[in-house]
Design goal:
- There is one protein chain.
- By secondary structure, this protein is of the alpha+beta class.
- The chain has a single domain, classed as NADH Oxidase, CATH 3.40.109.
- It is built from 7 helices and 4 strands, in the order H-H-E-H-H-E-H-E-H-E-H.
- Helix 2 crosses helix 5 and helix 3 runs antiparallel to helix 6.
- The mean pLDDT is 95.
């Protein structure tokens, strides 16, 4: 599949078929995350792969009772590794770059899902402390995103977008005629 087709086809999937996800596909998704760009090539993130039903249920509860998370055959939890990024970039690595690295890795996996015939849904609404507890993340790791993955049991329509002319600004942003 061409990249533009993958991007246009991606949807947030919240209903999954019960079929498991093959280990080869899980490995391919992790390899895509590993190829994502990162600040200073430090890869300031970690990924926890969850297939255990009880752990997925606890994760769904920690994510404000979003039960579709537990229904996915596999769930990836992306954590910022602040210490890793801070080792080179200090406070900015700690507070920003590690989060950006985890975010980019999540996006790569999300797009790779589409290419592999899988669906996913980026989840950012969760209790950080509870998610960290569920995945047994140490103090230097901050949950950034939860990505439930599986074969889609739905085919949602595209959601409305703002439009390129609404999001793109040449030279500056703010107080220009026609901007809201």
């Amino acid at each position: 599949m061409e990249l533009m087709d993958v991007i246009k086809k991606r949807r947030s999937i919240r209903s999954f078929r019960p079929d498991g996800v093959d280990e080869k596909k899980i490995r391919a998704l992790l390899e895509c995350a590993n190829l994502a760009p990162s600040a200073g090539n430090l890869q300031g993130y970690e990924i926890v792969v969850i297939k255990d039903t009880e752990t997925k249920l606890a994760l769904a509860k920690a994510a404000l009772d979003q039960q579709f998370i537990a229904e996915a055959p596999v769930v990836f939890v992306f954590l910022a590794n602040a210490k890793r990024s801070a080792s080179k970039y200090g406070k900015r690595g700690d507070t920003l770059y590690s989060t950006q690295d985890a975010t980019i890795a999540t996006a790569y996996v999300q797009l790779a899902c589409v290419d592999l015939g899988l669906g996913s849904c980026w989840v950012g609404a969760f209790n950080d402390h509870e998610v960290a507890k569920v995945v047994q993340a140490g103090i230097d790791y901050t949950p950034v995103s939860i990505l439930p993955v599986g074969y889609p049991a739905e085919d949602p329509e595209p959601r409305p977008r703002r439009g390129v002319d609404s999001i793109a600004h040449y030279e500056r942003v703010g107080n220009k005629k026609g901007m809201k």
